[in-house]
Amino acid sequence: MMSKKKDTPYYIGLAIIIVIFGYFAVKNVVHYINKDKVVDSNRTEDRAPVADKFLYKHGKIPDFKFVNQRGDTITNETLLGQVYIVDFFFTSCGLICPPMSKNMATVHDELKKYKNFKAISITIDPITDTPEVMKEYAARYTDDTRNWWFLHGEIDDVFELAEKGFSSYIKKSDDPAIRFEHSGNFALVDKEGFLRSRKDEYGNWIMVYRGVEEFDALPQIDEIVEDAVTLLND
Protein backbone atom coordinates (compact mmCIF):
# COMPACT_ATOMS: atom_id res chain seq x y z
CA MET A 1 0.00 0.00 0.00
CA MET A 2 2.85 2.39 0.87
CA SER A 3 4.47 1.72 -2.56
CA LYS A 4 1.24 2.48 -4.44
CA LYS A 5 0.84 5.80 -2.60
CA LYS A 6 4.41 6.79 -3.47
CA ASP A 7 3.79 5.96 -7.17
CA THR A 8 0.58 8.02 -7.45
CA PRO A 9 2.25 11.43 -7.96
CA TYR A 10 4.36 9.92 -10.79
CA TYR A 11 1.26 8.92 -12.80
CA ILE A 12 -0.37 12.27 -12.20
CA GLY A 13 2.73 14.07 -13.45
CA LEU A 14 2.95 11.81 -16.50
CA ALA A 15 -0.70 12.50 -17.33
CA ILE A 16 -0.11 16.24 -17.09
CA ILE A 17 2.91 15.98 -19.43
CA ILE A 18 0.88 13.97 -21.95
CA VAL A 19 -1.95 16.53 -21.89
CA ILE A 20 0.47 19.42 -22.38
CA PHE A 21 2.34 17.61 -25.18
CA GLY A 22 -0.92 16.70 -26.86
CA TYR A 23 -2.11 20.32 -26.75
CA PHE A 24 0.98 21.65 -28.50
CA ALA A 25 1.06 18.75 -30.97
CA VAL A 26 -2.54 19.41 -32.04
CA LYS A 27 -1.82 23.15 -32.23
CA ASN A 28 1.17 22.56 -34.50
CA VAL A 29 -0.78 20.20 -36.73
CA VAL A 30 -3.52 22.82 -37.15
CA HIS A 31 -0.86 25.45 -37.88
CA TYR A 32 0.77 23.39 -40.62
CA ILE A 33 -2.57 22.44 -42.14
CA ASN A 34 -3.48 26.11 -42.34
CA LYS A 35 -0.02 26.94 -43.65
CA ASP A 36 -0.39 24.33 -46.39
CA LYS A 37 -3.73 25.83 -47.32
CA VAL A 38 -2.12 29.25 -47.63
CA VAL A 39 0.76 27.87 -49.69
CA ASP A 40 -1.64 26.00 -51.94
CA SER A 41 -3.72 29.15 -52.29
CA ASN A 42 -0.64 31.17 -53.21
CA ARG A 43 0.44 28.59 -55.76
CA THR A 44 -3.00 28.72 -57.32
CA GLU A 45 -2.84 32.49 -57.36
CA ASP A 46 0.56 32.33 -59.08
CA ARG A 47 -0.73 30.00 -61.75
CA ALA A 48 -3.96 31.75 -62.64
CA PRO A 49 -3.68 33.67 -64.79
CA VAL A 50 -0.03 32.97 -65.62
CA ALA A 51 0.03 35.44 -68.52
CA ASP A 52 -1.04 38.40 -66.39
CA LYS A 53 1.48 37.67 -63.66
CA PHE A 54 4.58 36.70 -65.61
CA LEU A 55 4.21 38.65 -68.87
CA TYR A 56 4.26 42.39 -68.43
CA LYS A 57 1.40 44.34 -69.99
CA HIS A 58 2.75 47.43 -71.74
CA GLY A 59 0.60 49.97 -73.59
CA LYS A 60 -2.17 49.15 -76.03
CA ILE A 61 -1.24 49.09 -79.71
CA PRO A 62 -2.50 52.26 -81.49
CA ASP A 63 -5.17 52.04 -84.17
CA PHE A 64 -3.93 51.07 -87.62
CA LYS A 65 -5.39 50.18 -91.00
CA PHE A 66 -3.29 48.29 -93.55
CA VAL A 67 -3.72 45.84 -96.43
CA ASN A 68 -2.25 42.34 -96.47
CA GLN A 69 -0.66 40.47 -99.38
CA ARG A 70 -4.06 39.08 -100.40
CA GLY A 71 -5.64 42.52 -100.58
CA ASP A 72 -7.61 42.17 -97.33
CA THR A 73 -7.96 45.24 -95.10
CA ILE A 74 -6.44 44.54 -91.68
CA THR A 75 -6.94 46.76 -88.64
CA ASN A 76 -6.12 46.52 -84.96
CA GLU A 77 -9.78 45.56 -84.41
CA THR A 78 -9.41 42.75 -86.97
CA LEU A 79 -6.78 41.27 -84.66
CA LEU A 80 -8.71 41.53 -81.40
CA GLY A 81 -9.07 38.04 -79.96
CA GLN A 82 -5.84 37.01 -81.69
CA VAL A 83 -2.35 36.67 -80.27
CA TYR A 84 0.10 38.00 -82.81
CA ILE A 85 3.82 38.53 -83.29
CA VAL A 86 4.99 41.55 -85.27
CA ASP A 87 8.15 42.48 -87.14
CA PHE A 88 9.04 45.36 -89.48
CA PHE A 89 10.90 44.55 -92.72
CA PHE A 90 11.20 45.38 -96.41
CA THR A 91 11.52 42.94 -99.27
CA SER A 92 14.66 44.41 -100.86
CA CYS A 93 16.58 44.36 -97.58
CA GLY A 94 19.77 42.33 -97.94
CA LEU A 95 20.97 42.50 -94.37
CA ILE A 96 18.84 41.50 -91.38
CA CYS A 97 15.48 40.95 -93.11
CA PRO A 98 16.19 37.51 -94.61
CA PRO A 99 17.26 36.00 -91.24
CA MET A 100 14.36 37.80 -89.55
CA SER A 101 11.88 36.32 -92.00
CA LYS A 102 13.48 32.90 -91.63
CA ASN A 103 13.07 33.13 -87.86
CA MET A 104 9.50 34.38 -88.23
CA ALA A 105 8.86 31.32 -90.42
CA THR A 106 10.04 29.17 -87.50
CA VAL A 107 7.68 31.02 -85.15
CA HIS A 108 4.83 30.68 -87.65
CA ASP A 109 5.42 26.94 -88.09
CA GLU A 110 5.42 26.43 -84.32
CA LEU A 111 2.19 28.36 -83.72
CA LYS A 112 0.09 28.04 -86.87
CA LYS A 113 -1.85 25.16 -85.31
CA TYR A 114 -3.56 27.74 -83.08
CA LYS A 115 -6.55 29.22 -84.88
CA ASN A 116 -6.24 32.49 -82.92
CA PHE A 117 -2.57 33.12 -83.79
CA LYS A 118 -1.19 35.45 -86.45
CA ALA A 119 2.31 36.36 -87.59
CA ILE A 120 2.40 39.96 -88.84
CA SER A 121 5.20 41.36 -91.01
CA ILE A 122 4.81 45.07 -91.81
CA THR A 123 6.80 46.59 -94.66
CA ILE A 124 8.63 49.88 -94.04
CA ASP A 125 8.97 50.40 -97.80
CA PRO A 126 5.34 50.43 -98.98
CA ILE A 127 6.14 52.26 -102.22
CA THR A 128 8.15 49.27 -103.46
CA ASP A 129 6.44 46.56 -101.44
CA THR A 130 3.00 46.34 -102.99
CA PRO A 131 0.76 43.45 -101.96
CA GLU A 132 1.84 41.62 -105.13
CA VAL A 133 5.54 42.03 -104.32
CA MET A 134 4.97 40.87 -100.75
CA LYS A 135 3.04 37.86 -101.95
CA GLU A 136 6.12 36.79 -103.92
CA TYR A 137 8.33 37.48 -100.90
CA ALA A 138 6.06 35.46 -98.62
CA ALA A 139 6.35 32.47 -100.95
CA ARG A 140 10.09 32.29 -100.20
CA TYR A 141 9.38 31.46 -96.57
CA THR A 142 6.05 29.65 -96.41
CA ASP A 143 3.40 28.00 -98.54
CA ASP A 144 0.77 28.68 -95.88
CA THR A 145 -0.05 32.35 -95.30
CA ARG A 146 -3.43 31.92 -93.66
CA ASN A 147 -1.81 32.84 -90.35
CA TRP A 148 1.08 34.97 -91.67
CA TRP A 149 0.08 38.35 -93.04
CA PHE A 150 2.42 40.78 -94.79
CA LEU A 151 0.98 44.27 -94.33
CA HIS A 152 1.27 47.34 -96.54
CA GLY A 153 0.24 50.89 -95.57
CA GLU A 154 1.10 54.56 -95.90
CA ILE A 155 4.72 55.07 -94.93
CA ASP A 156 3.96 57.79 -92.35
CA ASP A 157 1.40 55.50 -90.71
CA VAL A 158 3.88 52.61 -90.61
CA PHE A 159 6.65 54.73 -89.08
CA GLU A 160 4.27 56.17 -86.49
CA LEU A 161 2.98 52.73 -85.52
CA ALA A 162 6.51 51.36 -85.24
CA GLU A 163 7.60 54.22 -82.99
CA LYS A 164 4.51 54.70 -80.81
CA GLY A 165 3.19 51.17 -80.72
CA PHE A 166 6.34 49.06 -80.62
CA SER A 167 9.20 51.44 -79.75
CA SER A 168 10.82 50.06 -82.88
CA TYR A 169 13.72 51.90 -84.48
CA ILE A 170 13.10 52.78 -88.16
CA LYS A 171 14.89 55.41 -90.19
CA LYS A 172 15.48 56.24 -93.83
CA SER A 173 19.15 55.75 -94.59
CA ASP A 174 21.39 58.24 -96.35
CA ASP A 175 23.11 55.27 -97.96
CA PRO A 176 21.16 54.41 -101.15
CA ALA A 177 22.44 50.85 -100.97
CA ILE A 178 20.81 50.34 -97.56
CA ARG A 179 17.80 52.68 -97.96
CA PHE A 180 16.29 51.91 -94.52
CA GLU A 181 17.73 51.28 -91.09
CA HIS A 182 15.62 49.29 -88.63
CA SER A 183 15.81 47.02 -85.62
CA GLY A 184 15.46 43.27 -85.91
CA ASN A 185 13.01 42.79 -83.06
CA PHE A 186 9.82 40.77 -82.72
CA ALA A 187 6.93 42.09 -80.63
CA LEU A 188 4.22 40.05 -78.89
CA VAL A 189 0.63 41.32 -78.69
CA ASP A 190 -2.13 39.72 -76.63
CA LYS A 191 -5.80 39.11 -77.45
CA GLU A 192 -6.81 42.51 -76.10
CA GLY A 193 -4.24 44.40 -78.19
CA PHE A 194 -1.62 45.02 -75.48
CA LEU A 195 2.11 44.64 -76.00
CA ARG A 196 3.43 41.88 -73.71
CA SER A 197 6.88 40.65 -72.70
CA ARG A 198 8.89 38.69 -70.15
CA LYS A 199 11.86 39.54 -67.93
CA ASP A 200 15.44 39.25 -69.13
CA GLU A 201 18.13 37.17 -67.45
CA TYR A 202 18.78 40.03 -65.02
CA GLY A 203 15.19 40.29 -63.87
CA ASN A 204 14.33 43.40 -65.88
CA TRP A 205 11.22 43.64 -68.04
CA ILE A 206 12.00 43.70 -71.74
CA MET A 207 9.66 45.24 -74.32
CA VAL A 208 10.51 43.28 -77.47
CA TYR A 209 12.33 40.05 -78.34
CA ARG A 210 15.42 39.67 -80.50
CA GLY A 211 14.38 38.45 -83.92
CA VAL A 212 17.97 38.04 -85.09
CA GLU A 213 21.35 37.58 -83.46
CA GLU A 214 22.65 40.82 -81.95
CA PHE A 215 26.18 41.30 -80.63
CA ASP A 216 26.59 37.54 -80.10
CA ALA A 217 23.21 37.39 -78.30
CA LEU A 218 21.03 34.70 -79.85
CA PRO A 219 17.55 35.36 -81.23
CA GLN A 220 14.80 34.85 -78.64
CA ILE A 221 12.70 32.54 -80.79
CA ASP A 222 12.05 29.88 -78.15
CA GLU A 223 11.16 32.55 -75.60
CA ILE A 224 8.61 34.38 -77.75
CA VAL A 225 7.01 31.11 -78.87
CA GLU A 226 6.71 29.98 -75.23
CA ASP A 227 5.17 33.29 -74.19
CA ALA A 228 2.78 33.31 -77.16
CA VAL A 229 1.58 29.85 -76.15
CA THR A 230 0.98 31.16 -72.61
CA LEU A 231 -1.22 33.93 -74.02
CA LEU A 232 -2.96 31.61 -76.45
CA ASN A 233 -3.90 29.29 -73.61
CA ASP A 234 -5.01 32.10 -71.31
TrEMBL record:
GO function terms (MF aspect): metal ion binding
Signal peptide: none
UniProt family annotation: Belongs to the SCO1/2 family.
Keywords: Copper, Disulfide bond, Membrane, Metal-binding, Transmembrane, Transmembrane helix
InterPro entries: SCO1/SenC, Thioredoxin-like_sf, Thioredoxin_domain
Entry-linked PANTHER family: ELECTRON TRANSPORT PROTIN SCO1/SENC FAMILY MEMBER, LINALOOL DEHYDRATASE_ISOMERASE DOMAIN-CONTAINING PROTEIN
Superkingdom classification of source: Bacteria
The protein, known as: Cytochrome oxidase biogenesis protein Sco1/SenC/PrrC
